[in-house]
Write a structure and sequence with these properties.
Blueprint: E1 33-42, E2 47-57, E3 64-70, H1 82-85, E4 101-110, E5 116-118, E6 135-144, E7 149-159, E8 168-170, E9 173-176, E10 182-183, E11 185-186, E12 192-193, E13 208-217, E14 221-224, E15 228-234, E16 237-247, E17 252-255, E18 258-265, E19 268-275, H2 279-300, E20 307-311, E21 323-325, E22 328-330, H3 343-353, H4 369-388, E23 394-396, E24 399-401, H5 403-412, H6 430-452, H7 454-467, H8 475-486, H9 488-499, E25 504-511, E26 515-522, E27 528-534, E28 539-544, E29 550-554, E30 561-566, E31 582-584, H10 593-609
Helix pairs in contact: 2-3, 2-4, 3-4, 4-6, 5-6, 5-10, 6-7, 7-8, 8-9
The structure holds zinc ion.
The site of zinc ion has 6 residues, from helix 4.
């Protein structure tokens, strides 16, 4: 999803096309869990009646005697859910005006002859002393061996909440996400990766096939994960079957006021669903997909699905906006968004990027949110810079703010507080989560790209996304790929930046007629340039590997040194303080332009990024 902060300066380097042979790209996921469901919407009561079967295979190396079921809608059941107890700012911080929940009516283990063993009486909805009901334990009467598959018969009733945190209804608009009993992922070693629905956390699941039949009143238009494979209208009802393999979630929307735009982009059938009066924005969403779908496919491996649906909710249902599901994303932005404010484009590009960083590379979003939101934020910054150049966030009244600049400034506000690489539920506030998970990760990547080349960082991310397509990698797999492409020093820097609150501040500490003293503060180091400004108006540049704590740079002797700037091209994007990057006499018309630019950029970005 999208956090509340955005910011970036486009890299001056134009990315070279990635050099990958995608003929060898993995075509299919390991099919671990299949959901065959039928869902009937009552749009007056805002309920969904669901039933069907789940086929689940123990893909781990250990036998199991229990299942864990995520019942995410219960996050909106009462003030006592983990989600609403943990309100730490950001979206979803007020209780919904109408509660939502999921009640499991049937949960049975089916044998080969379809004989059912009722699992409901032994299902444990809660832990002792905790009223959260989003993470249910289901003891099994038999052991399920590695490789063995079981079938479950399920039936459930959803009451959708008034729109809150990506799901729910407003009037007759329904955005139905996190709506069915969902089996947690069993890791290879036989441990269940299950968790309550925490306030800041998202999801994690195995790949499989979703075969879902949706039943709504005839007047309603549907949008859903996967292509429509069968549809009919009869008896006042519209029934659509959507079928998608190789995905790990399924979301849908139903509204009697959707308008629709359709276009084939890069071989993909793209649909934009939008409210009447939002046609201009829908065309902007489509334009963003027209750029970003082929761009992301080239960078991170080809988008493997036949369809993509962009849902653009009405402004007063914007809590449904800015969210990602497999083959279905939600954008946001009011119908009157000025053409120069690119927030709708940024949201669409961001959510589309999630088809890779979350969708195809299916990391544990609760345990390591930076692996999806952070890497995807950088993917967003790259795409926006490539598409829209210097004004990639806004271009208003002649001022241009890039998407990347905002990340750098926002990320420095929280870097001392807690690490980037930690569980979503460990963050102290929504603001800190946004600044570190989203902005810091993107600013670190942008720094590596500016210092070591965007091509190299692009190749690392491209390799990572391809190698772990349809897999569930962790941080170590990411770091290993960076070591492979960029070397051990860069991988160590990346580790320190992500796990150890790594920071850096380059400082010009003194300028004399004969030399300039430059310092490096902090725990990270990058090679930098130092530019000396001489009395005779000339300048010269020196290199520093940036590894020691300080270094003195001698002038040429022919003319006194008047001023100095460290990192004159702003390559170290996460520099904690740009105001001390220069020293000496900056007046008299000789003030380094880079400094003025940096300070200006900083002020501008702060205005954008501040709450
Ligand atoms: Zn996101």
């Amino acid at each position: 999803m999208l956090a509340g902060l955005q910011a970036s300066d486009p890299s001056p380097q134009v990315p070279a096309p990635p050099r990958f042979d995608d003929a060898s790209l993995r075509r299919q996921a390991d099919d671990v869990v299949d959901y065959t469901l039928r869902a009937t919407l009552d749009p007056q009561q805002h309920t969904v009646r669901g039933e069907g079967t789940i086929r689940w295979r123990n893909a781990s190396t250990r036998p199991v005697r229990e299942l864990w079921l995520h019942l995410y809608l219960n996050a909106f059941k009462s003030e006592r859910s983990a989600f609403l107890r943990e309100r730490v700012g950001g979206r979803g911080s007020s209780a919904p005006s109408d509660w939502g929940w999921i009640a499991v009516r049937r949960l049975s283990l089916l044998d080969a002859q379809d004989r059912a063993t009722d699992l409901l009486p032994s299902m444990e909805l809660r832990r002792p002393g905790d009223e959260d009901e989003t993470d249910a334990r289901v003891p099994l009467p038999v052991e399920i061996a590695p490789g063995e598959a079981v079938r479950l018969a399920v039936a459930f009733d959803d009451k959708l909440p008034a729109i809150v945190e990506r799901t729910g209804y407003r009037g007759s608009f329904h955005m139905v996400g996190q709506w069915f009993p969902k089996i947690a992922r069993l890791e290879d070693d036989g441990t269940w990766a299950h968790f309550p629905f925490h306030h800041l956390s998202e999801f994690y699941a195995d790949f499989g096939t979703y075969d879902v039949t949706l039943d709504v009143p005839e007047a309603f238009t549907l949008g859903a994960t996967g292509p429509l494979v069968d549809g009919r209208v009869a008896g006042g009802r519209r029934v659509e079957r959507h079928l998608q393999r190789d995905v790990h979630d399924f979301a849908w929307t139903a509204w009697d006021r959707w308008d629709r735009l359709r276009e084939t982009i890069d071989g993909v059938d793209v649909t934009v669903l939008f409210p009447r009066g939002y046609g201009g924005l829908a065309r902007r969403d489509l334009a963003a997909v027209r750029f970003a779908l082929p761009y992301d496919s080239a960078q991170y491996g080809r988008y493997p699905y036949d369809v993509l649906t962009v849902v653009h909710p009405e402004d007063d249902a914007s809590e449904a906006g800015g969210m990602e599901y497999p083959t279905l994303i939600t954008s946001e932005g009011p119908w009157f968004t000025p053409a120069g404010v690119l927030s709708p484009e940024i949201v669409t590009v961001h959510e589309l990027g999630h088809q890779w960083f979350y969708g195809l590379v299916a990391t544990n979003e609760a345990a390591w949110p930076f692996l999806d939101e952070g890497l995807n934020q950088y993917a967003e910054v790259r795409a926006m810079a490539r598409w829209r150049g210097a004004g990639s966030a806004a271009e208003v009244l002649g001022l241009r703010v890039s998407d990347a600049a905002i990340q750098a400034v926002a990320s420095n506000l929280s870097v001392q507080d807690e690490p980037v690489a930690q569980a979503a539920s460990a963050f102290s506030s929504g603001a800190s989560y946004a600044r570190l998970v989203y902005c810091r990760t993107a600013a670190i990547m942008e720094t590596l790209a500016r210092v070591y080349g965007e091509d190299a960082v692009g190749r690392a991310l491209g390799l990572y996304a391809r190698r772990y397509r349809f897999e569930h990698p962790g941080p170590e797999q990411l770091l290993a790929v960076f070591e492979e492409i960029l070397g051990a020093r860069v991988a160590a820097t990346l580790r320190r930046a992500l796990f150890e609150k790594g920071w850096v501040d380059y400082v010009v500490d003194g300028v004399t007629p004969s030399s300039a003293l430059v310092r490096r503060r902090g725990t990270l180091s990058f090679p930098v340039e130092v530019e000396l400004f001489l009395d005779d108006g000339s300048t010269l540049r020196r290199q520093w590997d940036g590894q020691g704590e300080s270094r003195s740079f001698e002038g040429p002797g022919s003319s006194p040194v008047r001023a100095a700037v460290v990192d004159p091209d702003d390559r170290v994007f996460i520099d904690a303080n740009l105001a001390n990057n220069h020293g000496g006499d900056g007046g008299g018309g000789g003030a380094p332009r880079t400094l003025e630019r940096a300070t200006y950029l900083m002020q501008l970005a702060l205005q954008v990024a501040s709450p």
